[in-house]
Amino acid sequence: MDSKRRTWLIATGCAGCVAAGGAAVPFVDSLAPSAKARAEGGPVDVDISSLRPSEKMTVLWRGQPVWILHRTPAMLESLNETQPLVADPDSKRTAFPTPAWAQTQWRSIKKEYLVVVGICTHLGCSPVDRFTPGPQPSLPSDWDGGFLCPCHGSMFDLAGRVFKNMPAPDNLVVPPYMYVTDAKVRIGEHEKA
Fold first, then answer.
1. What is the pTM of this model?
2. Structure confidence at residue 193 as a pLDDT band (50, 70, 90)
3. Which domain holds residue 154?
4. Are residues 19 and 43 in the same domain?
């Protein structure tokens, strides 16, 4: 065979392989789940290293907002005050089951971090932050801080526990989660679940 012809055949074959590989990449990528699908189904890892005390961040998991609140010592102390005022202080109700490890006053693995689904258990509204204690519009004068659902007035303390005689029938939902490291939370998976 002519050496020029062999060179052109090799070059054409290599170009064809590169083109086939380039065409295959988008096809193979299309088989992977989208970021939205991953957020709606599988676990989500969240870096909380920059979350300072009294700050809250929101992440999306299974199409729902999940709040992570870094509670201060004063916020944790307020849970002693709200304990007798909430409808289900130990999260024992079964309509929205709470994992056994979160059936405590803090409703969390590490008491300084609250992790809850930010959807009211009444009609699915999203409560707003009312972390500042004291009298405020639509809140009692002895308010210790927490969350207020503006649609129908349900109030939750800083552990996501609903106060007595509110439209919301249950506490905010605690999703399964675990700490991968001290600075990373995995929402949607618990090592003992």
1. 0.75
2. very low
3. 38-187
4. no
